[in-house]
């Protein structure tokens, strides 16, 4: 299970990760990652959403979206449990304070655990690798 400090619960947090974060799509899932730098200028509401979290560096938080298009409830819950377990093992590699939303696509219903793991790793690698390049000034070296 994912620790409660690492869960996205509020609709606003999901919306922030999806709208302001970067996206990496794979055949089985889509991953949205929003770092602290993407949240500049927003009102800090961590005290409202997580009153039990100690002050200091906020931990990375994750949320999951598995729609009815994936399948019946039993299948959706299986996919959600697999994704939760995979993300839990990777939270330590994410930047502190980042928000991650993993959206399962319908093909995830018939995918194996290893297939989900491969797609999640590929998406995270792409998102985390691209972050330093995004901070470079545009037009540099021209």
UniProtKB/TrEMBL annotation:
GO terms for cellular component: ribonuclease P complex. GO terms for biological process: tRNA 5'-leader removal. PROSITE patterns: RIBONUCLEASE_P. InterPro entries: Ribosomal_Su5_D2-typ_SF (IPR020568), Ribsml_uS5_D2-typ_fold_subgr (IPR014721), RNase_P (IPR000100), RNase_P_CS (IPR020539). Pfam families: Ribonuclease_P. GO terms for molecular function: 3'-tRNA processing endoribonuclease activity; ribonuclease P activity; tRNA binding. RNaseP catalyzes the removal of the 5'-leader sequence from pre-tRNA to produce the mature 5'-terminus. It can also cleave other RNA substrates such as 4.5S RNA. The protein component plays an auxiliary but essential role in vivo by binding to the 5'-leader sequence and broadening the substrate specificity of the ribozyme. This is Ribonuclease P protein component. The gene is rnpA.
């Amino acid at each position: 299970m994912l620790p409660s400090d690492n869960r996205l619960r509020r609709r606003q947090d999901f919306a922030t990760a999806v709208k302001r974060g970067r996206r990496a799509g794979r055949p089985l899932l889509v991953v949205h990652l929003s770092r602290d730098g993407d949240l500049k200028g927003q009102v800090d509401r961590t005290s409202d959403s997580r009153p039990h979290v100690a002050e200091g560096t906020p931990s990375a938080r994750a949320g999951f979206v598995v729609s009815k298009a994936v399948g019946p409830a039993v299948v959706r819950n299986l996919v959600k449990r697999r994704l939760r377990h995979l993300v839990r093992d990777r939270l330590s590699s994410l930047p502190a304070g980042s928000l991650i939303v993993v959206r399962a696509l319908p093909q995830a219903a018939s995918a194996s655990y290893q297939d989900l793991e491969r797609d999640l790793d590929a998406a995270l690698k792409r998102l985390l690798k691209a972050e330093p390049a995004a901070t470079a000034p545009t037009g540099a070296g021209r």
